[in-house]
Amino acid sequence: MKFPKQFFANVLLAYLFWLLVFYTGKLIFIFSTLIFVTKVSVTDIFQILYHGFWLDLSTAGYFVALNTIFLFLFNISKKRFFIQIHHIVNILLLAAYFLVVTAEPVIYREWQTKINYKALTYLKNPSEIFLTADTAYIFFGLIITGVLTWLFHNLSKKLVITQTKEPFFASFLLFIFISGLNILVIRGGVKAIPINLSDAHFSNDFSKNDAAVNSVWNLIHSIVQNNKYLDKNPYQFMPLSEAKDIVKKLHSTEKDTTITVISRKTNKPNVVLIILESWTADAVKELGGYDNITPNFSKLCKEGLLFTQCYASGFRSDMGMAAILSGYPAQPTTTITEQPEKVKKLPVISHVFKNKGYKTAFIFGGQLIYGNIKSLILHGQYDKIIEGKDFPDTLPASKLAVHDEFVFQRAIDEINKEKEPFFYTIFTASSHSPYDVPVKPELHFKKENGYMQSVWYADYSIGKFMAKAKKQSWFNHTLFIFIADHSHPSPRQWEYHSKENKHIPLLWYGNLLSDSIRGKTYNNIVSQVDLAASLFSQLEFPSSQFNWSKNIWNPHTKNFAYYICGDGFGWVCPYGDYSYRYDLKRFIHQNFENDSLKEIAIREGEAYLQVLFEDYLSK
Q1: How much is the average pLDDT of 556-561?
Q2: Burial grade of 309 (CB within 10 A; 0-12, 13-18, 19 or more)
Q3: Nearest-angstrom CA–CA distance, 543 and 86
Q4: What is the pLDDT of residues 2-31, one digit of tens each?
Q5: CA–centroid distance for 581 within its chain
Q6: Which of 71, 367, 374, 430 is the most buried if burial means most Cβ atoms within 10 Å?
Q7: Is the peptide bond preceding residue 441 cis, with omega within 30 degrees of 0?
Q8: Rounded Cα distance, 507 and 306, in Å
Q9: CA-based max dimension of the chain
Q10: Do the beta carbons of residue 211 and residue 26 sit within 8 Å?
Q11: Which helix (H) or strand (E) holds 62?
């Protein structure tokens, strides 16, 4: 029996071809993204390529499995029709792969995560991509995708050997053998545990591990895992009853001796909640950040109450909105605002204000469709919702939204027409990419310079807003709360999983604050989700429906903060902090005073996530 050498050679060349494609993609990621995130040596590059080989080979197995079918059919029939289909399939695969590769730098620099299932959910609103990404980059990315697809398509055509027709039986046996081999390659061999993300990880620097992971394999894995857990809780660390007991203890208090920090002279004080887009603590001097980035915010700190250890629950605006407005923590693999039927079951702080006779409004200079934020706002029954389309076209605007200073001016105008008491939510946008702000300071950061300039402009706008607000009749009986929706990578380049990466500013400000706390700092650990219960404790409004939110003004409340990082979570408590990746089944970092306290914190965090996701599924 003659061995079908041509068929075997074509399959072998297909594997080599796809490995070359994937290595090209990795080099693009390294030189377009990784070198701007962390220090990369020549040794690092070789390690990234070496340690990622098996995931690359596994991904190639998927692609070659398709190639094998058409190569086999051509081999036994000699009909060029099958080769043409083979080439078309390769074009589609190449285009899809290089689209992911060229899009990933934007995603990674913003979220510090590779393209995954959650990223794909935002494609339901593709306009966000075109508004937030640089237009030149989009076109450049499409051109690069087209050029690389064309180049590798031509290479793949040259690699296919089409000289002879080979015997059917021998080719069929080889086809069966190669198909089985493809399955083994996809699985990662015959070992007990199939190949997974950990096989590509080699460094304590997680960004280098991300570079080693094949982008397509990562995306496929993420999609499969998320579909698997649509109605099942993947985060089962212990019996549910035990987890619920731990979470109940975390939220229970021995007694309530809530400290009053707001003057009672005003029965129903006005509240203006200012949600700061993408503000990191590194932009605020008083939080250990850089000097002169937010000088106006610093002035407010001298007369307000600054929270020095506030942490964001998630890394996107939709997650931040749910945390701030509904007191609901972020989930690792999904976002509750993307589930309209679940949003309906969330409490919203505007609803409470409305029931207490307040006039309510939400103001944003962009469009609220992103991340389905608008469904949450509508559910909150705000009396007025003002967004980008409601601003005059003549106002200066970025690609994403009307510039912050004009949004704040609109807020002043609207509030001046309002009857007291009122609750206004103002969501800024200028510190969101693409950072095309109208006024820029001379900053010279090697990394994230555009972002830091945009935060400076947002602060400049806040300064103008507060100067005008102080002249209004309603100022003296208004509480201003400034809080970021999430953090953002700063020039300090914190690790994605670290608590520093989730550290955000939170400031209470106004003449309503008690003299004893003005100009002071609150140094206990606080989460975004704690805003609802803490605010309503001061206003003496009901807050029991915000059952994930803690009243931080009660000295007996336990101090902790939870946040998500990839398919995992982080935990911050008075005696340490850690982060855990569920998909890798390992801790990314641990900082504790002693082992006994570490074990307590680990059980607390695991129980919290388990019960949270169970609650999410039940909504």
Answers
A1: 97
A2: buried
A3: 61
A4: 666 777 888 899 999 999 999 999 999 999
A5: 15
A6: 430
A7: no
A8: 5
A9: 98
A10: yes
A11: helix 53-77
| CA 123 – CA 101 distance, rounded (Å) | 16
Over residues 435-446, the pLDDT tens digits come to 999 998 999 898
Tell me the C-alpha distance between 431 and 437, whole Å. 8
pLDDT score of 490 more than 90: yes
Token look-up 């962009």 returns 366
Interatomic CA distance for residues 91 and 152, integer angstroms: 9
Q: Coil, strand or helix: which one is 259?
A: coil
- What's the chain's length in residues? 619
The pLDDT assigned to 7 comes to 73
In the chain, the domains with their CATH numbers are 5-228 (no CATH), 254-557 (3.40.720.10)
Among 263-277, 328-342, 472-486, where is mean pLDDT lowest? 328-342
Q: Are 428 and 482 in contact (CB under 8 A)?
A: no
d(CA 583, CA 195): 12
Q: Cβ of 617: how many Cβ atoms within 10 Å?
A: 15
Tokens representing residue 255 in the block: 């007694």
Closest CA to 503 of 488, 522, 492: 488
Strand order in the sheet with 520-527: 384-386, 359-364, 422-427, 270-276, 478-484, 503-509, 305-311, 520-527
CA distance 329 to 528: 8
Tokens of 273: 């909640």
CA pair distance 233, 127, nearest whole angstrom = 32
- Nearest residue to 311 (alpha-carbon basis) of 550, 56, 600: 550
* Residue 341 burial (10 A CB sphere; 0-12, 13-18, 19+): exposed
How is the beta sheet containing 561-564 ordered, strand by strand?
A: 561-564, 568-573, 576-581, 586-592
